[in-house]
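Ticket closed. Logging final result for Transporter substrate-binding domain-containing protein.
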Amino acid sequence: MPLRISALCALLLSAAVQAATAGGIDLQANREPIRAEPNPAAIALIPANFHFAVPGKLTVAVAFENSPPLALFADDNKTLIGSDPDIARLVADSLGLALNLVPTSWEDWPLGISAGKYDAAIFNIAVTKQRKTKFDFATYRVDTLGFYVKSTSHITSINRPQDVAGLRIIVGSGTNQENILLGWDKQNRAAGLPPVQPIYVTDDAATNLSIQSGRADAFFGPHSTGAYKAALTGKTKMVGIGPSVAYVAVTSKKGNGLVNAINAAINGVIVSGEYAQVLERWGEGDEKVERSAINPPGIGD
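Final structure:
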């Protein structure tokens, strides 16, 4: 098992390295939007008299902090780029709508969708059993989680519950990775092992500072963001992956019917090729899905 996990770590990091080196991720070139044609079949699935948050626009919540390659600000500090804004644009184009991107915090998107403030959220949101009680999901990427440490760290492997015992680990509040980490910690405490110390930070800069200063031992989060930084700066390294793989999905309000149109939009750009262009240019080609699914089995099912 450790050998198989190590091989997967190497494969995932290799993909990110290839993408972030010459000829790979070009932030300047990636400012240019990839556009899609209106998809009549997807448009026909928009519920009759659907009330969009902003008439004529698809309002999508995305991360406000720099989380490359998922979402980041271009060099003008106001243009949002990244794979999540790109996916949002493809969906909006396919539905014949203008795109209204709203940068927000992770804590805000659930209430924002429930209140009708956002039509959808594209926020690296994993499908879970609990979330499906309040939201509908149309998948667009595989969610792989990774453990990252300072490049000079003595830690070489985090793949099992006992590997996190006594460590200080940065993790996002309310995320899939937090649930995994706390579950591992519960097992460790029952076995008499030292507890893990979850560390919650507010942005990517704080994460980097905590890791490099030694205030935290590791970061546990989306593979795509961790691998991007490791390849780009060389200051961190991947030492393990999470125990489960889930699906990341465009998230909308439960039962309002918009998920059917979003699902058709994603499947349309998968067939026409724009979807693959987006993921490849952001170094996420290894996380592509062959087809978008609505509310598939998720974490906890």
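The mean pLDDT is 89. No further action required.
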